[in-house]
Please model this.
Amino acid sequence: MLGYRDIRFFKMTFAVSLVCWSVGNVGQLGAADRLIGVHSAQVLSQSMPWIAQEAGLFKKYDLDFRLVLIVSSPVATAATINGDAEIQVTGAIGNVRAYVQGVTDLVFIGGIKNTMTHNILGKPEIRRPEDLKGRKVGVGRFGSNTHNFVVQAFKKLGMDASRDIQTIQTGGGPETLAALVGGSVEAAALVAPGDAGAVARGFRLIVNGAELRIPYGATQIVTMRPTIAKRGPVIGRFMRVMAEASKILHTDKNIVYKVLGKHLRINDTKILDSAYQSEIPALERRLELNEAALQASLDEIAPLDARAKAIKPQDMMDRRYLVELEKSGAFDK
Model:
């Protein structure tokens, strides 16, 4: 559920961002189709819009695209439902929860990351998952991907996150790393490149998420069915941009490292390389949607809302753009 403060903060942040965008783009408005997107985390799996901007792909496909960071999948979902944004590059959970609650116009049109690759890192004296019992573990936000990873990972390891640890909400990936380094938490759930940054600072890998292979819609591309009906060709060009950005992401580390360095202020090549090598195998080269990943969100919601049991993952998917991209050979260009 979204609190009043969350929505008010979102509206203020979003308004300021769009004012700045409008001022900076006065000379080009009208020449290209405007499109507003949101993302929920500054991580490698959500970096394709950054890469596309760096490579000039939005200009190539005549799109005037603005990406706004909203560090919460549910709040990013609210932006889309309210019509403030038309595209999300974000986690599935907020969208699936809204779909279960009746917002069936939400639709998944592409997948970027369909498994959890988060890791739990902690102080050097914490050697095993069992050693985390009774300790403070940082996550981005309650209900976020990092929080859900901790819950699912502990379950797989025969533990109960709600009982065995004290979960601390930090705000986002950079804030979680800062909390770990600053000592306000003893361990933290992090994803690339934050996990590599923690290792570089001497923290120990305690739970390797990639080895657990937990299906989850960690990063998805989401829009609304009415948006497709109104602006289908524009959304199609956005997906073509994402297809080309995906190829760059998987084949040109120099551009990727340049982009991550700029947006995350990380210039240590060793950290960037470690993050890239650990994360890239889990990212979908062809933006494939995965039913098991979305089913994981439905299963998570079902104990609290029985309506989730009647929904199938394919009900929430629209593969038309993926089919078009495959037919055109866009992923191979």
